[in-house]
Amino acid sequence: MKMKRIVGKINGFMSVSIALLIWYGMGKIHNGELSIGVLYAFTTYIKQFFEPIGDLSEDYGTIQSALVSADRIFEIVDQKENVEDLDAGRHIERFHGSVEFKHVWFAYKGEEWILKDISFKINDGDMCAFVGETGAGKSTIISLISGFYKVQRGEILIDGVNIDDICRRDLRTNVSVVLQDVFLFSGTVRDNIVLNDEIDEETLNNSIEISQVKNIISNFKDGIYEKVVEGGNTFSAGQKQLISFARAIAHDPSIFVLDEATATETEILIQKAIKSITDNVTTIVIAHRLSTIKDADKIIVLKDGGIIEQGSHKELMKRQGYYSSLVMTVQ
Hints:
Blueprint: H1 2-30, H2 36-78, E1 99-107, E2 113-122, E3 127-132, H3 138-145, E4 153-158, E5 161-162, H4 168-174, E6 175-178, E7 187-188, H5 189-194, H6 201-210, H7 214-217, E8 227-228, H8 237-250, E9 255-259, H9 267-277, E10 282-286, E11 298-303, E12 306-311, H10 313-319, H11 322-330
Parallel strand pairs: 3-10, 3-11, 6-9, 9-10
Antiparallel strand pairs: 1-2, 1-4, 4-5, 7-8, 11-12
Helix pairs in contact: 1-2, 6-8
Subcellular location: Cell membrane
Domain ABC transmembrane type-1: 10-65
Keywords: ATP-binding, Cell membrane, Membrane, Nucleotide-binding, Transmembrane, Transmembrane helix, Transport
């Protein structure tokens, strides 16, 4: 701001200088002592003299931005190495799939709690759904189950073992998450399902069958070998979700998570896929469309970072509480 004020004063001084020069020069021209060409040359010289000062304001902003960027770069360079050791901890090749939160408190920053004293248990093989408004903490719970963050208070148990003690590689191998915004890599549909892992054809075909991807690839010219551009921009949101669904099933997880992955166009197909997979693995669903979770073994209702209700669809409807009001609102 100071630089702008200084440049403004200099520009004002330049204008005054040119005005005085023209006033003085016109008198000289009138007396025949000065030509118009010489007066024009002098005004041009004055502008050229002050022009670099005017450019300085723009350069000053660029320099300030560069200094801020340099500070950020140096912060990264000065950071101590903090690479996560994926193989540290207890090795568990295959989970049974039970998940338990015991008085969990979590905040991304300080004590701005996102989750407050959260306690629940999902038995292995059960389907559990989380319901709540945006910001209630649903996605945060998924991030904690995936081991992306550590809780400040309480503990998270998988098969009775504290999640912090489990090898991260085993944890992420056993937990598959289907996000709402799916990223597809360049290649083919098949490549995006197997992800360069050694997956046999029987497993691949089974994942395509269960995920209902067969219903979309049947419309492709090259079927499962249909070309995919970076980001999957030639596919609809629903198609990308189903492909991501098949990707997760093909890698045979113990815990399957659907994070708001219910696009309207594929909602019926995803419901069929959920019913097919829930008999074998623990399934956790987060969705705003309550029609996708009516068959869940347990529904946990979150509000302001805490649990206000939990039970089956029938149990919660009988209570006529917050969940019941949500269902009545969307009907």
